[in-house]
Amino acid sequence: MNPTIYDVAREAGVSMATVSRVVNGNPNVKPTTRKKVLAAIERLGYRPNAVARGLASKKSTTVGVIIPDISSIFFAELARGIEDIATMYKYNIILCNSDQNKEKEIHLINTLLEKQVDGIVFMGGEITDEHAEQLRRSPVPVVLAATIDPKEEFPSVNIDYKQAVNDAISFLTEQGHKRIGMLSGPLEDPINGYQKFAGYREALEQAGIAFSEDLVIIGDYTHDSGVEAVGTFMSLAQPPTAIFTSNDEMALGVIHGAQDSGRSVPEDLEVVGFDDTRLATMVRPTLSTVVQPLYDIGAVSMRLLTKYMNKEEVSEHTVCLPHRLESRGSTKSLS
Amino acid sequence: MNPTIYDVAREAGVSMATVSRVVNGNPNVKPTTRKKVLAAIERLGYRPNAVARGLASKKSTTVGVIIPDISSIFFAELARGIEDIATMYKYNIILCNSDQNKEKEIHLINTLLEKQVDGIVFMGGEITDEHAEQLRRSPVPVVLAATIDPKEEFPSVNIDYKQAVNDAISFLTEQGHKRIGMLSGPLEDPINGYQKFAGYREALEQAGIAFSEDLVIIGDYTHDSGVEAVGTFMSLAQPPTAIFTSNDEMALGVIHGAQDSGRSVPEDLEVVGFDDTRLATMVRPTLSTVVQPLYDIGAVSMRLLTKYMNKEEVSEHTVCLPHRLESRGSTKSLS
DNA sequence: GTGAAAGCGCTAACAG
DNA sequence: CTGTTAGCGCTTTCAC
Predict the structure, then answer these.
(1) How many structural domains is chain A composed of?
(2) Domain for residue B21, yes or no?
(3) pTM value surpassing 0.85
(4) By residue range, what is the domain housing residue A19?
(5) Is the CB of B320 within 7 Å of strand C?
(6) How many CB pairs lie under 8 A apart between chains A and B?
(7) Fewest beta carbons within 10 Å, which of A6, B36, B96, B290?
């Protein structure tokens, strides 16, 4: 049996309350007493029981993190941002993969709440009414990271996805491209589908270019789907001269698919990705892409959560981080 | 205030014990009673408090995972394997990044133990004496994943790194290569340095090829360090005709560095990586690499941990998973 | 500056 | 099949 606070108290010849005070750094303890207690702790190899502490204090110093897939290079980076800030504020993280599955997500929220987490960072697809209902019932604060809440009911941290894509496409139209392909995620996906698609259409419209359905392909975010998509694009009667993809991995696929069929990037085809994951510099030519500050989104979300957990006043409920276009080898001109 | 088991008991007109029984699926409850309790739970929106349960039952259904860096494509894959199996066995995961820093690692072990985790999966560099001492004090089982314990004191899941590298190098020598470069991790790293280096030397020796110091460069596992290393290798009086790298990312760097200087892979230079992360098929030519079952290493570690946690008999304390060489475009011949 | 005592919400004998 | 009763190990008033 591990020694308890009671054992330490006895060993040190003081009360449990006093031991508790020194363990928690309460200054109202005479230095001599503190010393005695510390010695007893050392002698016994006492290790405070955080579960008991949690029950008594109603705080677990643990936050829940719901993430679609930790093995994704995209989410893993976000997770790292979250974890670093959590550590900084002395919180631990319970990490759960949801695979963006609504049932799982809702179930996980519940599990985390049962475990008495002090807050939750949620990353997922869309916040549906069912999600919202569940989240509203949460006795602890929830922050959405890289996740759109159509009603802006919950605190969230994002970039302006629509504008970001608009920037990317506008960059391309300014270079004179008239036929710009878009390799999108499923349109139901609020960020990678809907928002980005909206940015694409908006930019075309602003440039006075007619929208053509042929030029939009729905991918599944994988390299393979990029390879496949270029094939389809290139077999068009009027193939695109530039392609934008909603993530970097598909962009690599597009580059490779183009090269496989003897085309060269950026001469024959310019390519712009999205995210600026580490992949972007791990291709030749290097990938021009929209920089989304993944780590920061995670870090800021967690920081925001700490504010809510401490019941601090928060000025902005919905934070929007800056993005920019990083021009590299897969596009011709320098921006 | 959230309703407690006591509130539910009162609402349903039964005792706490009965409520506890239905919540825990104990069959010794009359169906009628069960129904009443369930209804009360529903009505009150009761959510069991896992912390209280943990205190009373001395089980947290939570396991700790110490990982060097979750944002690494390598470890993220391991983590996913761990998490999936944990979920399967109804455990949650407290995830902690250690950056392979010994002090952090030891501190994290302690924190996890304070939080009363039921077990720990540890991934890290080396198990030093200090680590061992700390781990020995753990009241709960610990399993090492992709981590070498020189004394084989703790349960672990790995592949035979030395043999795996030997296989890769032997494949190259069999193709007639006499000068094979190795882009290694720091030699102090027990797996990526020491073990792999040993496999390299062994294979050369078996092939009757003299070892040459020029042909070993220490990298830092990044793409850039691969690019840089080829530069150095190629400026040698007698440059290597094939290069083995201890991870895939450096291999991509090697390929790109070679291509940047006008060489073609595999014609002018053959390249073999290690890990078979998703990167391997995201380059041109695609990367021949040693397949290490990352997800499985994570999954098996977690499975092993569940056995220890359940006090089941375990036949093999130290498990060694199979590896193989996947031949792709960066080497000439098919194996 | 220190101690006594009452819980925190639940499980786990033990009775009945 | 159900209820009673101790705790689990700690925090937190409230006294002194």
Answers:
(1) 3
(2) yes
(3) yes
(4) 5-48
(5) no
(6) 131
(7) A6
